[in-house]
Amino acid sequence: MTLKEIAQFRKDLLKWFKTYQRKLPWRDTKNPYHIWVSEVMLQQTQVKKVLEYYQKFVDKFPTLWHLAEADLQDVLKIWEGLGYYARARNLHKAAKLVTGEMDGKVPSDYQQFRKLSGVGDYIAAAVQSIAFDSAYAAVDGNVKRVFARLFLIDSPINQSASLKIFQEKADLLLDSHAPGHFNQAMMELGATVCHPKSPTCIVCPVQTFCRAFHTARQEKFPVRVKAKPTPEYHLAVGVVYRNDNILITQRKPDGLLGGLWEFPGGKIDEGETAEAACVRWMQEGVNLSVEIIEFLTRVRHAYTHFKIVVDVFRCDYQSGEVVLNGPVDYRWICVDEIDQYPFPRANHKFIPLLKKIE
User: Fold this and answer.
1) Taking residues 79-87, what's their average pLDDT?
2) Domain 3-220 CATH assignment equals 1.20.1560.10
3) Element (H, E) at 234
4) CA angle, 175 as apex, 42 and 125 as ends, to 5°?
5) Where do the domains of the chain lie?
6) Cis peptide before 205, with omega less than 30 degrees from 0?
7) Closest alpha carbon to 143 in 128, 126, 120
8) Which fold has domain 232-357?
9) Confidence band (pLDDT; 50, 70, 90) for 120?
10) What is the DSSP letter of 224?
11) Do domains 3-220 and 232-357 have the same CATH topology?
């Protein structure tokens, strides 16, 4: 694009955004912390889902001080169901650092903010531009799709090596006089007009500049490297009853689902029955001998890079004292106490059955 075309592109995009942007709660504030929370939640999560969580999160933790002083379990509980729990853990960790060393103020310096836990290039650019009007171009999946069509970029958008190409285009087009609005407008364009499939080009405010539109190749872009087949794992899980209590265990604080509570279990070995695996895992994972009373249900759940099929069994405690091999904590709780603990979504798919048993 020529300088004149770039100026017109910015003007057309911002005019469209001013009129047609969605009314979202994080767009009604200049509070850097609230903007930060929204951007963390929006990573790899659709706006519709985030709308279910954002307001209750900032109501529960209205300031960085409230978040920093909160127990991580309370943070994970309110995040429960939103997924990618490392986001919550990192935000909590960063809040402690900001309140402990930065007087509770979100850094307005890009490099300083970028060093905080969980803050990558995208979140740093988004928060700094929206909250502080700093001229940093934010590039997410929606933005990459728009640029791929605008410039016929054939570098795969799902390869990290391509990011530099998209970032250069973003830096070129960024309106330094309104960086926050420009970044939001680009993301909004990708989310509401420049869809992955069947983009609504007829209402696109910048179709004049789009090479894919003018060559009728919208469906050819963006280019993606074909993903490998998603592996699927078969697990056995036991709900162990001892008198009126059931056993739950806590996952390690880091890694997948870190810090959440769950019912003990694990992968079924090749040639092993689900029942045998359940009994084995109770012995290996928590040092208990159990008797399977009944098969409760089978649940399926998909994560980003793999899927699981879980056979759930009701078990009676026979003998042994809990010794943890993998989990970091445990509780014997009443079924009506379940809602006090944060659980993975896969567990929530059978928890209603446990409440009916009682």
Assistant:
1) 93
2) no
3) strand 232-242
4) 35
5) 3-220, 232-357
6) no
7) 126
8) Nucleoside Triphosphate Pyrophosphohydrolase (3.90.79)
9) very high
10) -
11) no
